Amino acid sequence: xxxxxxxxVKGVMKVEFFENDAPLAVQNFVKLSxxxxxxxxxxxxxxxxxxxxxxxxxxxxxxxxxxxxxxxxKGENQYHDKGVLSMAHRGRDTGGSxxxxxxxxxxxxxxxxxxxxxxxxxxxxxxxxxxxxxxxIEKIVINE
Length: 144
Known about the structure:
There is one protein chain. The protein is mainly beta. It has helices at residues 23-34, 105-108, and strands at 3-8, 12-17, 45-47, 51-54, 84-87, 99-102, 117-123, 137-143. The protein has a single domain (3-143), classed as Cyclophilin (Beta Barrel), CATH 2.40.100. It has two helices and eight strands.
């Protein structure tokens, strides 16, 4: 099962994927990461105590990879705990490249089974709260 390292200006967050619960989202994130899609993109949206969002090539929240993927909402790990990576979308089945990292369970539990959770930060969780709007994703390394 692949893992990822999200290298940011604040530090490195190591991620384990929820491959059984969200295979499409994991496959999509891995593919885009290997292509270097996320390298140099910024966290374009930050709501302190809620989420840090990235993955928009335009830096506005309106861009994506040019396609959409279906939501996967039925797995065991579809709970937005602190450190969880989840697909951002503008309506059911409209996700693409944008994702967010949850900063608290209390503020994100209403997103359960509304957005696809596809992984969780397992090391470097302290950097989740240090991300600021405009911070850059230096690169995402996929370890297989």
